[in-house]
Structure formats: C-alpha cells, structure tokens
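Model: Ready when you are.
Researcher: Fold this.
Model:
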Amino acid sequence: INDSEGHPSSSHQTLKGTSKWATSLENLLEDPEGVKRFREFLKKEFSEENVLFWLACEEFKKTQGKKQMQEKAKEIYMTFLSSKASSQVNVEGQSRLSETILETPHPLMFQKLQDQIFNLMKYDSYSRFLKSDIFLNHKKGEEQEENSPEAQTAAKRASRIYNT
C-alpha cells in the first residue's frame, strides 16, 4: 500500500501478535494465540476461571434454540456461578442468582456478570500479563522471527513485487 506520493505506507499495516495484544484486552481476546497465552498466565495466578467464564459467555451468546440455550446456561451456571461450582468466579450479585433463571434463558442473561469479569481482568490481570515473562518471552520470540534473515529476505521479495 502506498501513500499519495507513491511511497510505501506503514500506517496502513495492521498490528499483529503481541503488538496487537498490548493495545487492548479486547484485541488480546480476539486472537486465539493471545487467549492461549493469557490463560497460561492466569493459570499461574490461579484465576484462569475468569477468562474461561468470559469465553463461555461469548459462546453462549451465539447459541441457537431454547433447548441448547438451557443446556449451555446450566453448564455455565454449574461450572462458574453455583456455590458448588468447580471453577467459581467471584462476581457481585452471584448470591441472588438461582437455577430458576436457567428455565428461561436468553443470549444476554450473563452479560452483567460477564462485564464484571471483563473489567476485573482488564484492570487487574491484563496489566500484569503485559509485564509477565509469558508475554515478554512471546514478544521477544516474535521480534527474533521478524529480524531473522528468512523474514528479511521474504520482505525484500515482497517489496520488489509490490514496488515494480
């Protein structure tokens, strides 16, 4: 992509990997590799259930059909919200949730709780993740890949192709 003078433009290049993850938690959660690394970090912090709950809620919103919704809602409730949950998340208003809400599920029924968990991750875990060895080592690996002779050769080939 060239700018108005015909020079290669860098402003149109999209960020990838760790650079994109570092711009926002939303970008991190949109990248499967980012989610994998963030989960790895949260597991070490004993709070992996937060991202798992968030992901389960995202998946739940896409669920079609009342029966499937009921099953998925119950699964989310039993895994993350019930007092006997195996991976209980810590959210306000949790004590008021009862299994009766599971009988009439709707795509946004967990939205408020999901937002709480998102904010908890955004203002707590995410900033620590960006300073963690997991993130920094992945970033270093990406930078070494970009600076490898193979990557530079490919970039030169690409620039020859696009600048002819």
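Researcher: Now this one.
Model:
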Amino acid sequence: NIFTIFCMDRLGRKYLLASSMLLSGICVFFIWFVRTKVENLIMSCLFGLVSTVGWNSLDVLSAELFPTEVRSTGMGVQQAFARVGAILGNVIFGEL
C-alpha cells in the first residue's frame, strides 16, 4: 500500500493497473515451477505485492470516474452493490 502511494502520481493510475495485472498473470504462470516451501512463500509474497498495487489502482480509477461533488455517494452505492453481489454469489454458489 505504501509503495502504491508513492508510485500512483509518478507513474500514473492506468500504467500501474495494467502493469500490475500483467505481473500478476506472470506470477500465476510461475506457480507451475514452485517446488519448495520457500519458493511458495516468495511467489505468494510477489503475487500479493503486485495484486495489491492493482487493486489500489483500480480503487483510485473507479473513484475518479465520478464528479467530485458526488464522488463519495457514487463510491458508496458502488460498494453497496458490490457487497450485495458478493453475498448473493456465495449464497447461490452454495445452493448450486
């Protein structure tokens, strides 16, 4: 999170999002080559670092889609729908 704060304005939101998603995919690809616990730990840490940067960039980009005067309301409604969708997804998955 701290790394993302320093890089967000310097590198740009879209660049951070695109590069983190690409690097996340590369980390997932290299899971095939993990053989030891230490390698597993290293890959998990790398994936966690890269995917956190991506989620932070996505949060900033989605907040900036709304005009300043309705930004908090827009994000609140968006988060409410996301949480209802997550709950319904778990319930429906359990039923299926």
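Researcher: Key takeaway?
Model: Helices lie at 2-11, 13-29, 37-64, 71-95.
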